[in-house]
Known about the structure:
Blueprint: H1 3-8, H2 16-37, H3 40-43, H4 45-75, H5 85-92, H6 95-100, H7 103-112, H8 127-130, H9 138-169, H10 173-200, H11 213-238, H12 247-278, H13 281-290, H14 295-314, H15 317-320, H16 323-345, H17 358-381, H18 392-396
Amino acid sequence: MNNSRLHALNQTMLPREKLKRFVWTLGISGIVVLLASLLGLIVNRSEFFHAWLFSFLFYFGLCVGSFFWVLLHYVTNAGWDTLLRRQVENVASLFPLVILFSLPIFLDIFSSHTLYEWTRPEIQKLKDYMEKSAYLNVPFFCLRACVYFCFFGFVSWFFRRLSCVQDEDGNPYHSLRLKRLAYPVAVFFGFLFTFFAIDWAMSLDFRWSSTVWAFYLFSGAAGASLSLWILILLSLRKRGYLLEMNEEHYHLLGKLLFAFTALWAYLAFSQYMLIWYGNIPEETYFFIRRNNDGWYYVSILLVLGRFALPFLFLLPQSTKRNEKFLGLIACWVLFMQAVELYWIVMPMQLSQNFAVGWMELSVFIGMGLIFLSGYLKKAAEVCLYPIHDPRLQESIEVYN
């Protein structure tokens, strides 16, 4: 890389000392908000735990999706996103923090039994449950959760660690090593996320099943994490970092967002159409519950807001190259991801009418503040881009 290009990228790190107080303020504020939300245990334990699960799935999905983009970089041997990759590595490395958010859910599984019906002693005598008891039982659920959390936590840390080591020694072997590891890791990634989606979301109603459920949840998580990636990059560039990021990068990110918007719609429609056409009571009840009262309007909002609007607005090339417009669409997709997960989880508690209570907001905001604090801490520890990656120049000069 010539000296002029290197000088343009000279701001390689965030001001760690200046951010330190802000990071602590965000983290402490998030903890205070979460502690205040614990009052929900007194007001309505069931609503509290459902609100907690909704927020956990949202932030866990952002980490899962971010690690997917890291894996995709190495599996496809991509060069265009090298300049941008570090930010999804930082988000994916927040797995250990997000895993801590799951602890209250285990409290419910072992004591209150308000989230997962199959954990209740009276349900375990039913024939419907007995047929699935070999898989859906608390000890095996906890064992699988440990496997999911250990895998995602370790591999996300390892990939970021080697990427950062390359910043220090400049050895291109690290990139080659991560590329070789990415293939088997991707297989385990898909396998384990499939079972995670079944365990933590689909088993909310243990009688219900869908063969595309994991792909459906994954497409939403990938689109939401891509939107977060876009917002982080645009925010950094606005503050004078990553100045080599240009319209070509916006265009490629916009095309990916467009593709995953279409993928989400395809999977959502496939799931809905096949279940509704099959007309099996155990399967259709999932949609019947969400097509009545206030939840009907949320279902319509998902069709229009999660698919139609992003699809139509991202269709022209000009909108994908416009950083302001791309940022607005990314914000909207991230918001719709939260709406979708709320639509999945909360009808199990608020079965009659759609509502958003203070518990749902306080838990979501509290986790968000801690999540943002963790990201800024991670981002300030390392370079904002892989400064010695052998494909960095290719990324800077990308053209499509």
